[in-house]
Structure formats: C-alpha cells, structure tokens
Amino acid sequence: MQRKNSENKTIAAKTILIVEDNPEFAFHLRETLKDEGHQVKLEHKGKDGIHAALSSIPDYIIIDIGLSDMDGYSVAKELRNTEKLENTVLIALSGYNPDITRSKELFDHYFIKDTHIDKLLELINAPLSS
Fold first, then answer.
1. Spatial CA neighbour of 110 closest among 88, 123, 93, 129
2. Is 111:92 a contact under the CB 8 Å cutoff?
3. What DSSP assignment string belongs to 22-87?
4. Domain containing residue 35: CATH number
5. What angle do CA 63, 64, 67 make, to 5 degrees?
6. Can you tell me the distance from the alpha carbon of 65 to that of 34, in angstroms, rounded to the nearest whole number?
7. 78 vs 95: CA distance, rounded Å
8. Nearest to 53, CA basis, from 26, 21, 27, 78
9. Per the domain annotation, does 99 fall within a domain?
10. 40-49 pLDDT, tens digit each
11. What is the total count of domains within the chain?
12. Domain region containing 27
C-alpha cells in the first residue's frame, strides 16, 4: 500500500510493532511513524510484544533494550527463533550504547534514542529488501 508521508512523498506503508516501556517516548515514536503513513502497534512489555509479533507478523519490530519485564535481547532471541518472523526486521532502540556482539547476533539495526531517530525513519521509509 502506498501512502504520502509528512513531507508529501509517496512511500510504501509498513507494519511496525514498537516494544517500549517508556510511555512518553513510545507515544511520540508511534505518532511520528503514523504521521509517516505506517500502521503501528505499541506494546509496553516484552512478553506482550512477543505475543503481538507472533499474531501480526509486522515488517519491523522496534525493541527497547531496557524493558521492565525482560530485556530486549531476550525478546529478540525469542523472536529470532520463530520461523514465521524470519523476514521481519528487528531494530534495537536504547538510551545507551549497545553490547555490539549481542546486538549483531540478534538485531538487524541498533539505534540510540534521541540521537538516531532521523536515521530510524530513513530506514523504515526506504523500500523493504526482499
């Protein structure tokens, strides 16, 4: 499905799941992605995010590393072990620098909150690679 983003450019709308426990940041990110024309679902706990991912099979899953019920690495590990999510792009989003080795094993991309949001939008607004 094609949509116009906030800059009036035509983009392919993506399905995105955000797993983020900071309500203010989560709301802001969800609204930003919706403004870009994407379909966005939000979960605040890792276990709820896993359930939502398995039931909806999104194009992208953005996972906070420091969740309250389980860390984002554990969420990603469980999702990576699910065949029906093999084409889903996993993105780590954190307020601190990554554990590079774990991040590369589990995530396709890693962004730092507040400093890399423009790069995150650029990635999501680009065409999905096959």
1. 93
2. yes
3. -HHHHHHHHHHHHHTT-EEEEESSHHHHHHHHHHH--SEEEEESS-SSS-HHHHHHHHHT-GGGTT
4. 3.40.50.2300
5. 120
6. 22
7. 22
8. 78
9. yes
10. 999 999 999 9
11. 1
12. 2-115
